[in-house]
Design a protein that fits this description.
The chain folds into two domains: about 90 residues; about 230 residues, 2-Layer Sandwich (BirA Bifunctional Protein, domain 2). About 40% of the residues lie in helices and about 20% in strands. The protein has eleven helices and ten strands. The strands form two sheets. Strands 1-5-6-10-9-8-7 form a seven-stranded mixed β-sheet, with helices on both faces. The protein is an alpha+beta fold. Helix 1 runs parallel beside helix 4, helix 2 packs antiparallel against helix 4 and helix 5 crosses helix 10. The two termini are about 75 Å apart.
Length: about 350
Amino acid sequence: MLSLKGAWSAEMPLVQDQLHRIEEDAARDLAATADEAALEGWRVAYLGRRGRLTQVLRGLSALVEEERRNLGAAANQLKQRLEDAHEAHHSALGDAALRTTMREGRLDVTLPGVRGPIGRLHPITQTLRDILGAFASMGFQVTEGPEIEWDRYNFEMLRIPADHPARDLWDTLWMDYERDGVRPMLLRTHTSPNQIRVMESQEPPVRVVVPGKCYRYEATDATHEWMFHQVEGLAVDENISIGDLKGTLYEFTKRMFGSERRVRFRTDYFPFVEPGVEMAMDCFNCRGGGCRTCGNQGWIEILGAGMVHPEVLTGVGYDAERYTGFAFGMGVERIAMLRYGIEDIRHFFANDLRFLRQF
């Protein structure tokens, strides 16, 4: 209990009695406060602008000077004791709350931690790595080329001059840049330009695969996108034949899909190879019966290939009488569709986590 000693004037027993009751009541009420809200109520009741002690201090002005001085000193001493008691009780409540928090909210460090979400590779990235790994195991090196390409590499040196009707096979996105009245730069339509860049930079033997993005100005549907990934392959050496080409692609197919899938080669036209072939696999959706995904053909083309045209070899300075070679190019998205049984290429770029979490 708070204590008020001495300093009481015999002339003002009523004020003395008020101060004594205030001290007793304040001590009793303070001991009963159990939280911050109750403590603040206690402070307002006794020390606030309209509190009990404040009212007593205001009433001292009616006393004579000597009595006002003596009782005023006693009242101020009581006020200081109440403020000290308030501060001490406030600290005690804070310490009690901290102990409760530490007791009830303690962390058991022996419990296993919560595993955070783990990212994963996009299915196109997974497929691309597997494709490159398959060819790397057969002795091919991986190299890359620019996505913004010169017309010279994308068309001219691949036997597709400006007036050649084969240019209609590639819906080209040209760069807004002109030189001598023509636009010589474009977003590459295939990775075949890297055939020329590689052969210009080294002598045979050559065995490379070139991954990269390609761009074409065309409408999207279940099997086509305006931006897609492609892998170009090239091998040049003495005595390379179309049998080497077929053997390489059969081995690739076996490593990627297993031996049970059917493969078909048909002649096709590409200006930079002669002869040219198309390689297709039985449709993953209908198994050759015909459906919307395969255009009711039962087969899905996955790559074009052929023997490098002698004029292409001569154009980079190779001796076409001594060296031969084969080249192929495949769409990574179509390989992924065949591997995972995906019916629509647009799923790869929709950023739907329900789809991506399956890989």
